[in-house]
Amino acid sequence: MSNINLIDSFQEFKQFKNIDRPTMMSVLEDVFRSMLRRKYGTDENCDVIVNTENGDLEIWRTRKVMEDGFSEDDALEVEISEAKIIDPELEVGDDAIELVTLESFGRRAILAARQTLVSKVLELEKDEIFKKYKDRVGEIIVGEVYQVWKKELMVIDDEGNELILPKTEQIPADFYKKGDSIRAVVLKVEMLNSNPRIIISRIAPSFLQRLFELEVPEIFDGLIVIKKIVREPGERAKVAVESFDDRIDPVGACVGMKGSRIHGIVRELRNENIDVINYTNNSSLYIQRALSPAKITTIKLDEVRKHASVFLNPDQVSLAIGKGGHNIKLAGKLTGYEIDVYRDTKDEDDEDVDLEEFSDEIESWIIDELKSIGCDTAKSVLELTVDELVKRTDLEEETVKDVLSILRAEFE
């Protein structure tokens, strides 16, 4: 067959990265059969042979040889006088097999075929990318930052596929420029205007889980199971783990010798603090572990309301709440309990006064705000500086100073 432009273009298409060779050959055959039907009205008596090695193809057309004047269907039959031109040795009743050249279709038909082929190949490739990444949701991918925009990054994987990392799925401390290598987890795959849109994430709990699987062989092998992960991306994470082998300490295995295993994860997450906790069905013990590093004095549980009242020594309250309230918030998410912390005042000076006693002078919402950071007595508030109180609450500096003035007056 004459090797004109259309055939040359097939050499490009057969190399498409996401389409296997049999599928590509099938597409080529469909395109040519469509051309045959438009030209002859049928393709039943035509054979399209695609060479899978070099991309060349041949089209052979078979017609029954008839006596002159007795041919009723030119698409399936040929008169003897015309058949002799194809092959002088043909007789009536024989099959006339001829090679159909591309030139016989005409330039316009060839250009239309090329356009159809391009369209089908692109459609196939989009479908293949969608299917491939749909099956990879939850997996870690490594890519290269290709484009940086205000609200998202475009990342290219090792096959040149485009992935999107929205700003909302980045750790607050993340900063990338073009050419940087990046690790993230495939969050979801969606079709937008017939184009696959692959969203990746660095803040999803599944990203932290996959990092643990990479660093801790016991998790990858199933000897240790991650029961639950909660995160405040870039700040703190809590991971509850359980071992199916009594000989394995799940927390020790995850942390590694001198923190060797967890340090790599912490660096990847921009120094996010990670608390690894031994899972238990004992709710009281689970809450106690979840509030680590604070040491709890007593716990009162309301199983119906899923509420826990936790009492701690005064010096442990700020540890339980954590910077920005992250520790207590994550502990609540991990255990499923609403947790309130209180100062254990049994051993404190009897002169200390509960904040509720000041309700005539201090508005109730201000008292609630102070209680939310573990300050439920006058002295517990006075132990903190103005800056600390402003930083840890939503109170204005002037309001804090007024409150401190009222509380100090009580003890003067």
From TrEMBL:
Domain S1 motif positions: 138-203
Record has Iron-sulfur as a keyword: no
Complex and partners: Monomer. Binds directly to the core enzyme of the DNA-dependent RNA polymerase and to nascent RNA.
Organism whose genome encodes this protein: Solitalea koreensis
Record family assignment: Belongs to the NusA family.
GO terms classed as biological process: DNA-templated transcription termination; transcription antitermination
Subcellular location: Cytoplasm
UniProt GO molecular function: DNA-binding transcription factor activity; RNA binding
PANTHER family: TRANSCRIPTION TERMINATION FACTOR NUSA (PTHR22648), TRANSCRIPTION TERMINATION_ANTITERMINATION PROTEIN NUSA (PTHR22648:SF0)
Protein name in the entry: Transcription termination/antitermination protein NusA
Coiled-coil regions listed: none
Keyword line: Cytoplasm, RNA-binding, Transcription, Transcription antitermination, Transcription regulation, Transcription termination
